[in-house]
Amino acid sequence: MVVSPVVNTYPLSSYSFGTKEPKMEKDTSVADRLARMKLNYMKEGMRTSVEAILLVQEHNHPHILLLQIGNTFCKLPGGRLKPGENEVEGLKRKLSSKLAANSPNMQPNWQIGECVAVWWRPNFETIMYPYCPPHISKPKECKKLYVVHLSEREYFAVPKNLKLLAVPLFELYDNVQRYGPVISTIPQQLSRFQFNMISG
Amino acid sequence: MVVSPVVNTYPLSSYSFGTKEPKMEKDTSVADRLARMKLNYMKEGMRTSVEAILLVQEHNHPHILLLQIGNTFCKLPGGRLKPGENEVEGLKRKLSSKLAANSPNMQPNWQIGECVAVWWRPNFETIMYPYCPPHISKPKECKKLYVVHLSEREYFAVPKNLKLLAVPLFELYDNVQRYGPVISTIPQQLSRFQFNMISG
Fold first, then answer.
1. Which of B33, B146, B167, B200 is the most buried (most CB within 10 A)?
2. CB-based contact, A183 to chain B, within 8 Å
3. DSSP classification of residue B11
4. Does B111 touch chain A (CB under 8 A)?
């Protein structure tokens, strides 16, 4: 038999949450964001970004932690790697910047697990694909999604301008309108995992 | 660094194709299919089915082999396991039944690889989900998709009532209307793989 990889998921209530100083978005519009991306590309080449799928459970169903900006836009915690930075180390750095208290001895135990999806941006545009399209020899961004295994108890410090939401898989599934193509297909990418739901 | 699993893909032209006797569908309508499913469930419990993602390349882009029935409906090769049957052995049996010549010494070398997706059918209905929905304690079917690694050269015998198509990932992506929810998200599920495109 083929063995499914296991993810232990703990109740949302076993985690505690506080706030910290705001982490403002670097860009105020999509056009600004794409212009900055182009500038960085000319200096550093293809952008590599890493994002985390952090899982908790409620009512025995897996939920994903998403950061909400304003009232509608949701994103996975993560961000852009520095040129040459190791993916796993870079993701830990980004997770601490987005979700950890400032004190170095209060960092969650980020256990970076499986890479579950890779998305490519062929042009300086918002559209991404889960493959590098044919005839694209110089993609502009490669974004990798990792499952991050959480310990049973952790303290998260959420920037004051963001909200941290636990969103059930059934809410993400088939909901590209609300969550976009990357986040709305996370349920499919996690389907091969076996969730070991640990109650509180 | 996290290492991506590798799939060697060979050109479509390195495979040869013939035909064999028709393999008719067991049911002539969706209603018949669901009725037979219900009957089998009462006898044998939850149905487990296994399907194969067979990859080839053309123009350096991965393509998936799909069986087309009539002019529109496409499916992955595979099928229902016998009660208690091993998944890997069952998938090999189904692949040979659908795609191999009848002679036992002409069987392709089916190398069953990674399970990339698991879909659940909560009720005797057509809709499936990439998770077992909350409050469903007795799902009716569990369908697992496996990557099957093909050798460089093989001979496939296609039942006369079916057509074997090599469909590029870019055609499947975001095309739920044509391919349905399971097949249209295969590009996302394969995105974490590194394709080693071997030319002819």
1. B146
2. no
3. B
4. no
Chain A residues with beta carbon closer than 8 angstroms to that of B61: 131, 134
B53's tokens: 């993602």
Residue B72 pLDDT more than 90?
no
pLDDT of residue B171: 98
Q: Which of B34, B33, B37 is nearest to B46 (CA)?
A: B37
Q: Tell me the ipTM for this assembly.
A: 0.94
Give the containing element (helix H, strand E) for B43: helix B30-44
Place of tokens 């409050």: B135
Strands B73-75 and B194-197: unpaired
Alpha-carbon distance of A31 to A42, in angstroms, equals 17
Q: Which of B60, B168, B173 sits opposite A130 (nearest CB)?
A: B173
pTM over 0.90? The answer is yes
Give Cα separations from A63 to A59, A169, B101, B114 (angstroms): 10, 6, 46, 24
- Name the pLDDT band for A106 (thresholds 50, 70, 90): confident
At B130, give phi and psi (nearest 5°): -85, 25
Residues with Cβ within 8 Å of B113's Cβ and at least 6 positions away in sequence, in order, are: B5, B7, B146, B147, B148, B149
pLDDT tens digits for range A34-83: 999 999 999 999 999 999 999 999 999 999 999 999 888 999 999 999 99
Burial class (CB in 10 A: 0-12, 13-18, 19+), B40: middle
